[in-house]
Amino acid sequence: MNRGFGAPPDDAITRLYKVAAENTDEGKERIRAYYEALGRFVDTFARVESVVTQTLWKYANTPSKIGKVIFSGARIENGSQYIKQLAEATGAPQESRDDLENALQQLGIISRVRN
Fold this sequence. Notes:
Blueprint (H helix, E strand, L loop, with lengths): L9 H7 L8 H35 L4 H7 L5 H14 L4 H21 L1
Helix pairs in contact: 2-4, 4-5
């Protein structure tokens, strides 16, 4: 591109003016994709916490109105521990307890990384 007499060449301009990565088209797309993925993660994690809570109520044989009061504030780690203890105490089949252990262990890892 000819910039006219006395204008610096293109490479000289790029040395003088640096565009921050987040202001490029690619950078903007990466940031948008990041926040979209973050939003999906937060939404999914909240849903998982809800399922853990509902599972806890089920194993405690507690109606949701009562479970909300008794187990309020129980997060994945506490809820997981209660679920495993209740499954053992109520004589849940070993296969179910093994499945719970695997799922809850993975959720614990994700929860610790998230925190």
